[in-house]
Write a structure and sequence with these properties.
The complex is a heterodimer of chains A (316) and B (259). With 316 residues, chain A is an all-alpha fold. Chain A is 73% helix and 0% strand. Helices cover 71% and strands 0% of the residues of chain B. Chain B is built from 9 helices and no strands.
Chain lengths: 316, 259
C-alpha cells in the first residue's frame, strides 16, 4: 500500500503508527465513498420502492421521514457515521430487517465457502507453483504451469457452471435451486484462487533458482530438493504475503459468483439482490465492510512482508 | 499464441459480419423451446425458442463491443489521471495518490457493483462501472511510466528551452509513454471483458433477453442437463476469448533451461 502521509523519517511518529493512520484514513474515505456514491447518484432510495409499486406515496413519505432521507445530505452523512460507530448498519428498505441481522445470518455460509476455498487454494497453489518453478522434469513443469495459467484466466462463472454440469444429475428448474454440498463450489473457487498464488510461487522460484546464493549452496553440496528449496523460497515470501491481499480481493468477487452459480445462501447473493432491488442500506453496508476487510488484509500483508524480508523495512 | 490470434480473429470477424450470417433476430422466438439443432437452426433454440446461433453471433458484437468500450473508459480516465498526477505538480500527485488509494481499497468487482447500485441496473451502467473499476489500476501504471520518463530529462530539457508544461507533456512524454502502455491495453480489455460477462451473468444488465455471452451463460442454467449446449457454448466462447487475450498480452515466459 503506498503511504499517503508524507512525514520525514525524523518524525517521532513511528512508521507503523503512520501506516495504521493511513489505513484508517483510507478506510474512512472508502466508507464515505459508498455513502455518497449511492446517495448522490441515485437520489432518494425510497423512489425505487415507489417506482416498483411497492408502496403508496403516503407511506413513502412516512418511510422517508422515518429513515431520515428528507434531511439535508450532510446531516444524513453525519447520522450515518454516528450509527456506523454504534454498529448500526441500518435496515433493509424492503423487509425492514436490520442489516446486521441479515449479514449475520448469511455470513457463516459465505465464510465456510471462502475458508474452504482458501484451504484448497494455498496447498494447491504451492504445489502447482512449486512443480512449475522447481520441478525436475520439463513435462511436469509445463503441465503445472499451464494448469496455473488456466486457473488464473478462466472465469469462475464458466468453470462453476461447467462443474455444475458435470456433477449434476438435476435438470430444469432444479439447476437453479440451492445445491447441497460444499466440496464442489469450494474446489472450483479454490482452484481459481490457486492460480495467482501458483504463478507467484513459480515466478519467485524461477528467479531465485538462478541467484548466486543458490549456486553457492549447491556448490557446497546441498541437494536439489529439500533444504535447497527452503533457501530458495525465503526471498519469495514477501511477494507471497502481498499476494494474500490479492487473494482476498479475488475471493470477494469469486464468492459472489459461485454463490450465484450454486444458489448458495450467503452475502454474495444478498448483495446482488440488493442491487437489483435498489436496497441501498444493504449494498452500502456490504461494500463498505468488504473495503474495510480488504484494507485490513493489505495492512497485515504489508507487515508480514516486512517481517519476512528485512530489506523492505526501510528507514524505521 | 497462434491459436490465440486465430480465435480472436474469428471472433472479431464474426462480430463484424454477424447480421449477414443469420436471418433470425437474436431476440424473437422462432421455434419451440429447447428445440434441438436441425435444419435452419444449427445450434437449436434456447429456453425461449430463440435461435441460439443467432444469439451467439450477436453476442460476439455485444461482448466484444461492450468490453472495448469499458476498456476505453478505463484507459482514458485512468491514463488522464495518471498523466495529471505525474506531470502537474506535487499537489495534483497527492490528490491522485489519495484518490486511487481509496478507489483501490474496494475490490474492483465490488466497486463496479456499487456503481451499478447507484445508477441502477442496465447495460450502460455495467459498461461505465467496469470502466471506472478498471481506471485506478491503469492510472497507477501510467503515473509510474510517466514519472520515469520525466526523470529521463525530456521535460527538463524542453522546459529549459522555454516550453510550457502542457505542450511538453503532449509533445514529448506522450509518444514515449505509449509504447510502454500499449501492451497494458490488452490486459485492460481482458479485465473489462471478464467484468462485463461476470456482471451480466449476475443479472445486473437489467435485460434478461440481451444476447450477451455472460447473460446467456446464466440463462442456459435452466436447461443445464437437458440442453447443455446452451451453457457450454457461451462458457467456451468466454473462456477462449479471455485465454487468448491473456496469452497475447503476456510476455512469453522464459524457458528455464539453466539447471
Amino acid at each position: 500500500m503506498v503511504p499517503l502521509l508524507n512525514r520525514s523519517s525524523t518524525s517521532p511518529v513511528s512508521s507503523t503508527t503512520r501506516r495504521l493512520l493511513d489505513g484508517l484514513l483510507t478506510a474512512w474515505a472508502a466508507v464515505s465513498l459508498t455513502f455518497f456514491a449511492l446517495r448522490l447518484s441515485a437520489g432518494d432510495p425510497v423512489a425505487a420502492l415507489l417506482s416498483n409499486g411497492l408502496t403508496t406515496s403516503q407511506q413513502a413519505e412516512q418511510l422517508r421521514h422515518r429513515l431520515g432521507y428528507d434531511l439535508p445530505l450532510l446531516q444524513q452523512y453525519v447520522h450515518y457515521l454516528g450509527r456506523l460507530a454504534r454498529g448500526d448498519l441500518g435496515v433493509s428498505l424492503y423487509s425492514g430487517q436490520p442489516v446486521t441481522e441479515l449479514i449475520g445470518s448469511a455470513l457463516p455460509s459465505t465464510l465456510r465457502l471462502a475458508g474452504s476455498s482458501l484451504l484448497i487454494a494455498f496447498p494447491l497453489g504451492a504445489v502447482l507453483g512449486g512443480v512449475a518453478g522447481w520441478g525436475s522434469r520439463p513435462v511436469l513443469r509445463r503441465l503445472a504451469g499451464t494448469l496455473a495459467s488456466l486457473a488464473t484466466s478462466l472465469p469462475v462463472a464458466a468453470t462453476g457452471v461447467i462443474g455444475l454440469l458435470f456433477m449434476g444429475r438435476l435438470g430444469g428448474a432444479d439447476s437453479l435451486a440451492p445445491q447441497p454440498g460444499l466440496w464442489l463450489p469450494a474446489t472450483v473457487l479454490g482452484w481459481a484462487a490457486a492460480g495467482p498464488f501458483a504463478r507467484a510461487v513459480q515466478a519467485g522460484l524461477q528467479s531465485t533458482r538462478r541467484s548466486p546464493f543458490i549456486l553457492a549452496a549447491r556448490a557446497r553440496g546441498l541437494r536439489q530438493n529439500g533444504r535447497l528449496l527452503w533457501h530458495a523460497v525465503r526471498p519469495t515470501l514477501p511477494a507471497i504475503a502481498s499476494l494474500l491481499a490479492v487473494e482476498v480481493a479475488f475471493l470477494f468477487a469469486g464468492t459472489v459468483v459461485i454463490e450465484t452459480v450454486f444458489s448458495r445462501p450467503g452475502l454474495g447473493r444478498i448483495l446482488v439482490r440488493s442491487i437489483l432491488q435498489g436496497d441501498f442500506p444493504i449494498a452500502q453496508a456490504l461494500v463498505g465492510m468488504s473495503a474495510l476487510f480488504y484494507l485490513a488484509t493489505q495492512v497485515v500483508a504489508d507487515s508480514l512482508a516486512r517481517s519476512a524480508d528485512p530489506r523492505l523495512r526501510g528507514p524505521a | 499464441m497462434r491459436l490465440a490470434r486465430l480465435w480472436l480473429g474469428i471472433v472479431v470477424a464474426l462480430a463484424l459480419v454477424a447480421p449477414l450470417l443469420t436471418q433470425n433476430s437474436p431476440r424473437d422466438p422462432v421455434a419451440s423451446a429447447l428445440a434441438p439443432p436441425g435444419p435452419g437452426l444449427p445450434l437449436g433454440a434456447d429456453a425461449l425458442g430463440r435461435d441460439f446461433l443467432a444469439r451467439m453471433l450477436f453476442g460476439t458484437r455485444l461482448s466484444l463491443g461492450l468490453a472495448s468500450l469499458a476498456a476505453v473508459i478505463a484507459i482514458g480516465a485512468g491514463g488522464a489521471a495518471g498523466f495529471a498526477g505525474a506531470l502537474f505538480g506535487s499537489t495534483a500527485d497527492r490528490v491522485w495518490l489519495w484518490t486511487t488509494n481509496v478507489l483501490l481499497s474496494i475490490p474492483s468487482l465490488l466497486l463496479a457493483m456499487l456503481l451499478i447500485a447507484a445508477w441502477g441496473p442496465g447495460i450502460p451502467a455495467v459498461v461505465a462501472a467496469v470502466g471506472v473499476g478498471g481506471a485506478p489500476v491503469f492510472s497507477r501504471v501510467t503515473r509510474a511510466v510517466v514519472s520515469q520518463l520525466v526523470g529521463a530529462g525530456y521535460v527538463a530539457a524542453a522546459q529549459a528551452a522555454g516550453a510550457d508544461r502542457l505542450w511538453t507533456s503532449l509533445r514529448h512524454v506522450l509518444p514515449n509513454a505509449l509504447p510502454q502502455l500499449a501492451p497494458l491495453a490488452g490486459t485492460q480489455f481482458g479485465w473489462a471483458f471478464l467484468g462485463i460477462t461476470t456482471l451480466t451473468f449476475l443479472g445486473l444488465a437489467g435485460d434478461p433477453a440481451v444476447p450477451e455471452w455472460g447473460a446467456m451463460l446464466n440463462a442456459g442454467r435452466v436447461a443445464l442437463v437437458s440442453a447443455p449446449r446452451l451453457v457450454l457454448t457461451p462458457a467456451l466462447a468466454i473462456s477462449l476469448t479471455i485465454l487468448s487475450v491473456h496469452a497475447l498480452s503476456r510476455p512469453s515466459e522464459t524457458d528455464d533451461s539453466n539447471r
